[in-house]
């Protein structure tokens, strides 16, 4: 049984505070739009699909709660629009690179437009919006299982065709793309889980993924919980791993995939792709269709989030009691007053370095001799 990032009970939403994992499992309640926005921005919850799910659920819960109180905003379609649009616009600003968040808010705006155009009452429009918001979160697990199976079967076959091992595959991943980063099962980590469940995995390798340590804190915990044989490496050890071990594939998630296949993902993904190409190791991106942004022609159009410099200067530890309060231990790893810190949260891997892009619809590869993808078959 995998871990959970979001729990719901009627209008009540709780998320596991990922800033405290793996030391402490603390669920925090998200009861307002501002709390959802803050949780996403401060990375208490993170991972492109999970933040879209939380935004959609917080929106549904806000609307449902507002309807239970005397609610003037439902008096007409226009007043519903005036209430809903600023909320969606605000949620959209929480993190810029992961396009799933924008896809969710755009999808809810489309529902709003369609319900208004159909001549529905304010109450009926709100009911449509709440139902659609729940669908955004609920459909994530099913599509993750589909893409994991597509990608897993494709990889096993690809390795077989190139005369690879019969003793199971060694697969490396970056960041955390499991049930903590999604509504469940995961994308790249879902593919690894699928290989394990079907007896095709030897070992999952994963990078620590500094500075937030999604690998050493979150992927480590997920793989431990799932009892999947795994080995952690520091981010600087990817080249050494490829030189000294037989790695069959690198499998990563994505925050935004441009029309030509250029892919933004966690910082360090591009490094891994360059070294994988040097070693002719297949490099596979696994992500839902909502991560593909056909409005962006190539990677140069993807906005890259810069995180606060302080996040690159510290390591978070366990909670401890202090003068009647609970605090989180923090270890500074830089000299006091250090200036000049570069901390982009994501990098872009050019399509040229990517072997396959997998969505819930199937697997896309490049035509022989082509450097970019035609993604039309998988979106
Ligand atoms: C299924 S999660 C896919 C991506 O969102 C993941 O690889 C990633 O880059 C997460 O970044 P994060 O900054 O932790 O939200």
TrEMBL record:
The record marks 175 as: Transition state stabilizer. The keyword tRNA processing does not apply. SUPFAM superfamilies: NagB/RpiA/CoA transferase-like. Catalyzes the interconversion of methylthioribose-1-phosphate (MTR-1-P) into methylthioribulose-1-phosphate (MTRu-1-P). This is Methylthioribose-1-phosphate isomerase. InterPro entries: IF-2B-related (IPR000649), IF-M1Pi (IPR005251), IF_2B-like_C (IPR042529), Initiation_fac_2B_a/b/d (IPR011559), M1Pi_N (IPR027363), NagB/RpiA_transferase-like (IPR037171). GO terms for molecular function: S-methyl-5-thioribose-1-phosphate isomerase activity. Belongs to the eIF-2B alpha/beta/delta subunits family. MtnA subfamily. It comes from the Eukaryota. GO terms for cellular component: cytoplasm; nucleus. It comes from Mycena belliarum. Its EC number is 5.3.1.23.
